[in-house]
Description:
Layout: H1 8-13, E1 20-23, E2 27-31, E3 41-45, H2 58-82, E4 86-92, E5 102-109, H3 114-117, H4 138-158
Antiparallel strand pairs: 1-2, 2-3, 3-5, 4-5
Helix pairs in contact: 2-4
Amino acid sequence: MDDWRKDRIRSALQGRNPTVLARLSSGFAVIGDTQFLPGYCLLLSDDPKADRLADLPRARRLAFLADMDLVGEAVQIVCSRHDPQFRRVNYSVFGNLDPILHAHIHPRYGWEPPELLRGPVSHYPAAARMVPLGPGHDGLRDDLATEIARLSTEYDELARIPEDFPGL
Length: 168
């Protein structure tokens, strides 16, 4: 069987990516392969040719950013339920390693080492970031999928871009 990690977007489009939490208007909400910060998620654009946000037409960019917000809200709601030391959500769109448009959504917690708490997640040593997604994350994963589905019904109505939106 092909390794779905070699092409995460195509494998999601084909229903073979096991990290997919939900199909959204601009792509796929997925739970991260690593869970050193429990609840870490990503939004993968469904356009396999999009390398950066500017590769999308403006309406698709706005949809991607709205979906990133939706996933972040779900992460905030779920992670605060699962851990009383949940503090906030960090968002980032880098694309420096994987040439596909994707956004990282990292929950942040009060129990993180003080020297790392104030900086970006990338300051964590590589060894500390290697907590693999596993069966112990099933409850968190299920709750994230449920919350994303719940929020997406609200967002779908609120995030519609009017036909007379400037620039379209």
